[in-house]
Amino acid sequence: MRIGIFSDVHANLEALGAVLTAYESENIDRFLCAGDVVGYGANPNECVDVVRRVADAVVVGNHDAAVAGMMDYSYYYDAARKVLDAHKNALTPPNMQWLKNLPYTRRYDEQDLMLCHGSPIDVEEFDYIFLPEQAYALLPFYDNLNHVTFIGHSHLCRVFELGRTTVHEIANKTFTLAPDKKYVISVGSVGQPRDYDNRASYTVFDTDTQTFYFKRVEYDIETAATKIFKLGLERNFGNRLFIGV
């Protein structure tokens, strides 16, 4: 089975469209989304519509949870709160209900996979895992982890290979998983990459060969950013798309 895993669309319809077009040549059997369909961008309804249609499973991200009333976001900075408020008002009732119904995790026992937005420990806290020390914090829970945990949240492409007492970060864009290790894979962001590569990020996992692929695709950043500017949202949410940060 070939699984397409993507995350952090953040209401960026142009990036999402480019990713789905790129996936057409990947022979994908199942799509998984690791959350944050909304937030930051200009097209929350349209992106929810698309993800609802194409993804076999979606978990809730922190921005999704905020818009759906599942968490307090009063401590977010002003510009982020403004977007969340705007998206809350823009979503259709069916799309809002869909967000409210999203689970925090999905597990696939047949492939020994788990999908969540942040750390697989205390999933409602949305803790980040993008540094080795954050991955080391998972070792006390090693026996409870699936062979592979796919996450988003940081908007970074990161892979941590865990042994019972060790953590090894894998930098390769394509690699094969070892059967006697466990993996936490941060799949990057479709709609707002933050690794100084402005191309949309998406990934593929082949369960038969146990091979994982990081992929990138260019999209129409000018249009995505201009929509943000025209809506009067924080200009940095559009500017940062050009530089991928």
Textual characterization of the structure:
- This protein is 29% helix and 22% strand.
- It has one domain: Metallo-dependent phosphatases (Purple Acid Phosphatase, chain A, domain 2, 4-Layer Sandwich), CATH 3.60.21.10.
- α7 (221-230) runs antiparallel to α8 (236-243).
- 43% of the residues are buried.
- The model has no long low-confidence stretch (mean pLDDT 97).
- It has a 6-stranded mixed beta sheet with strand order 3-2-1-11-12-9. A 6-stranded mixed beta sheet has the order 4-5-6-10-7-8.
- It has 8 helices and 12 strands.
- The protein is globular.
- It is of the alpha/beta class and 245 residues long.
- β4 (105-108) and β5 (113-116) form a beta hairpin.
- It has helices at 13-23, 44-54, 62-67, 78-90, 93-100, 132-136, 221-230, 236-243, and strands at 2-6, 30-33, 57-58, 105-108, 113-116, 148-151, 157-162, 167-169, 174-176, 182-187, 200-206, 211-217.
Structural class: alpha/beta
Helix content: 25-40%
The CATH topology: Purple Acid Phosphatase, chain A, domain 2
Oligomer: single chain
Q: What is the straight-line distance between the termini?
A: 33 Å
Number of strands: 12
- Spell out the CATH superfamily: Metallo-dependent phosphatases
How do the strands of the widest beta sheet line up side by side?
Answer: 3-2-1-11-12-9
Shape: globular
Assign the CATH class.
Answer: Alpha Beta
Count, helices: 8
Q: Please, how many domains?
A: 1
Tell me the radius of gyration.
Answer: 17 Å
Architecture, CATH level 2?
4-Layer Sandwich
Order of helices and strands: EHEHEHHHEEHEEEEEEEHH
